[in-house]
Write a structure and sequence with these properties.
Oligomer: single chain
Radius of gyration: 12 Å
Order of helices and strands: HHHH
Number of domains: 1
Number of strands: 0
Distance between the termini: 20 Å
Number of helices: 4
Length: about 80
């Protein structure tokens, strides 16, 4: 994770995104994302959340896409995946 973002801030941003997207996600996905947030792993939580949103092919209109891209870059997800296939 980049030094330019604090882990607590990252966790809050991922939590906020999760709350905006709850209506389109199943409970298992929500629990997994919350698990990683609670364990201080915002990179895994964020990447997993985005993968699930792509699979359901629905992004709520209230989600700020630019903020999502910026958070992903701060978490270095533009250069390195944390989840392996």
């Amino acid at each position: 994770m980049s030094d330019s973002i604090d882990i607590n801030i990252a966790n809050k941003k991922v939590s906020s995104l999760l709350n905006q997207c709850r209506a389109v996600l199943c409970e298992d996905v929500i629990c997994e994302v919350v698990h990683y947030i609670k364990h201080g792993e915002p990179e895994i939580a964020f990447e997993g959340l985005l993968i699930e949103l792509m699979q359901v092919d629905e992004l709520p209109q209230n989600v700020d896409k630019i903020s999502c891209i910026e958070l992903g870059k701060h978490l270095n997800l533009d250069s390195e995946s944390v989840l392996k296939e």
